[in-house]
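Response to reviewer comment R2.3. The reviewers asked that we include at least one raw input/output pair. We reproduce the pair for Cryptochrome DASH here without editing.
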Amino acid sequence: METAVVWFKTDLRISDNETLLKAIEQSDQIIPVYCFDDAHFECTKYGFKKTGSIRAQFLLESLRDLDENLRNIGSGLLIVKGKPEIEIPKIAKQFSAQKVFSKREVAFEELQTEKLVQEELLKVNCELETFCTSTLYNTEDLPFTLKTIPDVFTNFRKKTENEAKIRTKFKPPETIKSPTIPALKLPSLEELGLEPISIDSRAAIQFKGGETEADKRLMHYFFETKLLSTYKETRNGMVGADYSSKFSPWLALGCISPRTIYHEIKNYEKEYGANESTYWLVFELLWRDFFRIMFKKYQTKFFLYSGIQTKKENSKSLNESLLWSWINGTTKSDFINANMLELKQTGFMSNRGRQNVASYFCNELNMDWRIGAAYFEQELIDYDVCSNWGNWAYLAGVGNDPRGHRYFNIEKQAADYDKQMEFRNLWLTNK
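Raw output as returned:
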């Protein structure tokens, strides 16, 4: 009997999941597995956890939902904890699996882990096969080779939009044949070395992990409220659940795919008409693709102080008191403080806020941008390695911005985007 392991990572869904469908097609039975990688819960060299409590809670909710969805069609989710290069081959050996199917990685640490798993699987006569499940466009459909992909987004976007097609999405499987999968046993936050948390009641939205919740959010933002039609005008908002789509946490864990969102945008346009706003959401999904491809192209460079630029500068030193004033929202800028308090207490921050606090960190506090990026990695509920480090490098002037160093006038930004001080009053007034 052909047995395969499906190693879930940041693709926690059953719809539009090529990895899962290919495993079902090629096997008699499958074993869905998620591994809590010990490395994801350690501290980085910058002194922050790789995964903070809020993001971990969202992950636990997403895994609970995935298990439920798998059980509805005859399977379930097996949970292991440790090093993937030890745990995944152990599962493969236990079930005499011939193949492990998983999502294809592009960032350096994730690729190193993938390589280690592949090497260990070969020792138990098992193959690893990977699939592109995180992007709007499949890499092989793009009109460039990896070497010739433009480093400027506009050039990449124009050629891609003109010459590449977005594939149709995969339907969810109707049934899965699996041996009996024991009842789901998730670790607690404490077992992951994290503190229990409660999200501040002022949060823009109370995020809950999982494909079911992602689908609900999509239906709400598109068809129930038709907010998609005004997205471009409202996306720079800062207060409330509906100024932007808020899809990012579910996209980061793969509870929903960019292609699913794209095809629902097309359905929406057929019913309610296309405009700049409906296009703009696709435009932003393409940015995600771009950063992912840049990581494939440049590997470790996005984690260097000089980023993907060739200029060499001495890294800026750390000023502990300035760093903690930024983290705790006690800087000289009330606009920065309000945004940083929102992040600390909810795990979320608006796009407008992110650009401002990053600019402030790099230009006003004059510190190494990677420290800020590492703090975001710990705190953001929607942390995605490529988008986070790619955006920070961009703001620091060492990434893909053709204009180089980017500086935000914080006072002007506050006056433009929080004119009535609604956002600042919300976060700077004691509850």
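The chain has a mean pLDDT of 96. DSSP finds 17 helices and five strands in the chain. Further pairs are available on request from the corresponding author.
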